[in-house]
Amino acid sequence: DAGVIQSPRHEVTEMGQEVTLRCKPISGHDYLFWYRQTMMRGLELLIYFNNNVPIDDSGMPEDRFSAKMPNASFSTLKIQPSEPRDSAVYFCASSSRPGQGGVETQYFGPGTRLLVL
Amino acid sequence: AQSVSQHNHHVILSEAASLELGCNYSYGGTVNLFWYVQYPGQHLQLLLKYFSGDPLVKGIKGFEAEFIKSKFSFNLRKPSVQWSDTAEYFCAARSYNTDKLIFGTGTRLQVFP
Known about the structure:
Mean pLDDT of chain A: 91
Strand content of chain A: over 45%
Oligomer: heterodimer
Number of strands of chain B: 12
Largest sheet of chain B: 6 strands, mixed
Shape of chain B: globular
Shape of chain A: globular
Distance between the termini of chain B: 41 Å
Strand content of chain B: over 45%
């Protein structure tokens, strides 16, 4: 299995531009999570999906951020317009929920390092 | 609010020293607990996890963690660290009736030869 795939790995853009981050979860996983990691705030959960449906987006910082999951194998996180304070590493993670008594383990992608100038 | 606390922000050790990183959580009910490691420039990888049974959990690379329910703690230990253990370590917890993992702020470990 290739694991969680994210693209691009690095993105440099100018303030005001639209940024789209992509994620392909592990096949068969029905949960997908988007995180942001910064030095100041650590690892923050932005939003997560279950069976392609957004369950909790309370971590999305503001309306400039949006996420979609059109099918089980693809999700996007979009920032429009981008600002310098959005510079961070954005991780995608996926997991399945095993049977009763099991444990959900989240598997992380390599991340997208975003720099907004 | 549910939270995870890691009180050691930065730990510096020499090789062969013993390691213990603290983790406390605020959940009152059944909880699943995790330790993840992030090597420089890489993504988070699972070290070990606890969901029930033996409170002493063995993970990869010689790491272990002990769940002490009365102290709401899940400290990570390794008897003898190596230079290659230099990384950032994150404790995480999930309340049994939710899907969200709450991460601690992380502990940066530096091991010098």
